[in-house]
Amino acid sequence: MSARVEEEHVQDGDRAGAAGPARRTTVRRRTTVVGVGAVVVLAALAVAANLLDTGMYPRLGIPVASTGVQVLVAALRTVVTVSSAVALGSLLYAAFLSPANASGTLAGAVSADGYRAVRRAGWTAAAAGVGGLLLAVATAADLSGAALAEVLTGRDLLGTFAALEEPMGWFLTGLGFCVVALACIWTVSWRVAAVLAAVAAVSLLPPPAVGQAAVGRGHDWATDAGALQAVGLAVWLGVLTALVLHRRHGGSLDGALWRRARGLLTAGGVTWLLSTLVLGLLLAIPGSVTGTAWGRWQLVEAGLAAGLAAGWAVVARRRRGLVPLAALSGLVVVAAGAMAHAVPPRFLVRTDTEGEVLVGYDLPEPFTALRALLDWRINILFTLVAVAAVLLYVHAVRLLRARGDTWARGRTLAWVCGWIVVELSTSSGIGRFSPGMFSVHMISHMSLNMLGPVLLALGGPVTLALRALRPAGRGRPPGPREWVVAAVESPVARVLTHPLVTLALFVGSFYLLYFTGLFEAALRFHWAHQLMNIHFLAVGYLFFWPLIGVDRAPVRLPHLGRLAVLLAAMPFHAFFGIALMSTDELLGGNFYRSLALPWLPDLLADQKVGGGIAWATGEVPMLLVVLALLTQWSREDERDAARHDRRADRDDDAELRAYNEMLARLAQGRR
Fold this sequence. Notes:
Helix content: over 70%
Shape: globular
Number of helices: 31
C-alpha cells in the first residue's frame, strides 16, 4: 500500500515539480542543510547558556557533572525539543492541513504534500526517539555527578532512571517517538497520522511531569502548566515549521489550510504563553527576577514571547514572515533549555511543609460541607477541558438553531450539568481534600465514574456534532465532521464499547486500583492522580454511552441486553464497598501516615466511611440508570407502535391482512 501511494505521488508530482527534478532535489538539499544548520546553532547556544549557572549547584548540595556531560545534555535537549516539535507539526499537517484522497483504491490516503510530511515526521521522530534515549543516560549522569560510563555500566540502569525520575521521563519520551518513527514507515492514511500525532503529543508529557517544577509547593499547578507548556511549544514550533516547508515547496497559504493552521498556531502559542506565565509565578520569589540566572533567563524569555506575539500579529494578517518567526521560536527553545538547567529561585528557600511536598498545598482545617462548597483549588487540566467542552457544545447548538433546526434543551442541560459535576469533583473543596482523605476521595471517584458520565452520555455530543458540522468537501483537508466519524467508526471504538469490555473495565478497575500498589502511587504523584481521574471519567463514559447514551454507539445491545449488563455490574459495586468497610488494612497507608493531618487521627475509620460512600453512591445512581433505561425502552416501544399505526393507515393495514391470509391458507391446507 505504501509503495503504491509513493508511486502515485511521484507520478503526480508536487507543487515544486514544475521546475523539474533538479529543482526538487535542490530544494530538498537546501532545506535539509538549513534545518540541520539551525539545529546545530541552537544546540551551541543552548550549551553556552547551560554553563552559566553551575555555580549554584554546590550551594544546594547538588553534585556538579563534568563539562562534557553538561554540554551533551544541553545539545541533546535542544535536538529532542526541535525534532519532536517538527515531527508533531508534520503529522498535524498530514492529518488536518493537507487534502486526502476521497475516492478510488487510495481513499483516505494522504496527498503528495501529506505523504512528504509523514516521511519527514518519521525521520524527525527517529531523531527525537534516539535523542531521548541518549538524553536519559546523560541526564542521569548530570543529576548524579557520575561519568557516563558509570551510568551505562551500572547494575540497574532503569532503576537509576526511576530513582532520579527525570531520566525516566526522557526515556519514556524516547520510546514514544521511536514508536512514532516506526509507524511512519507504513503510514499513508490521514487517520493513522492523526493517531500518531496524538501519540507524539502524549510522548512529550513525561519530562515535565517529573521535572524540577513537579515537586514542592504548588507542584499540582506546576505539573499541569509544564505539560501544557511542552505541548503548546511543540504545536507552535512544529506547525510553523510545516508551513515554512509548505511554502518552500511552492504551496500557498489560503483556504482551509490557512484557517486551520492559524487556529493551531494561535492555540499552541496562547497555551505556551499562559502556561509559561503560570510556571514563572510559581517558581519565582521576591527579588529573584534580576538576582538569579533563572530570573534573568525568565526576562529573556518574556522578551522573546513579546516578539513572537508581535510577529504573529503581522504574519496572521499578511501571511508573510514565517521564517523570522521560526528563527525567533528557536531562540525560545534555547531560553527554555537554559531555564530547565538553572536552579529555580523557589528552591533557594526551603520552607515547604509536608503537605506541600506530598500534595502541593496544606490542609490545615478539617473537611466540612461549607469547605466543600467554598474552599476551591482549581485543577488546571480539568477546568480547561470542562470550559472548552461546554463552549463548543453551546456553539454547536447555536449553529443548529441558526439553520432553523431544533435541539432538546434537556440534552444541553445534561451536558452542562455533567461538566459541572466534573469541575466540582476536581476543583471544589471535594477536589482539594480528595488527596488527603480517603472518604472525600471516594466522593470524587464516584462522581467522576458514575454521575458525571451518565449526564454526559445523555447530552449526545456525537449526534450534535454530526448535525452541526458540515462535510469538508472534495479536494479539501478532512474537517471536524470527518474526524468525529473516523473516531466513532474506528476499530478501537468498536472494541472499547463492546459490553464485555466496558463491563470488565468499569468493574475491574475498582479492584485493580485499590487492592494493589497502584492507589498509593497515584496518591504520591500529581500526574498519576490526574491519570486516575481521567481513567474514572473515561471508563464511566464508555460504560454508560452504549447503555443509555443518546448517541448511537458502535456496539449497541437491545434494551434487554443493556438491562442485563447493568444488573451484572451492581453486585460488584456493592461487594467493593463492603470489602472496604470490612478490611482492617489501610489503603495508601504510607502516604496518609506521611501526610499526618492533625485533625484526622483515625485513618482506618475514614477509610470505612469511604467504603460506605462507595456502596451507597454506587447503588443509588445505578438504580436511577436502570429507571432511565426502562423509560427509554418504553418510549421506543411507543414510537415503534406509532410508526406501525401510521404505516397501517397508509396501506390499509396490509401487514395484518397478509398475516390473516396466511393463517387462512394454513387452515385450508389442514382441511
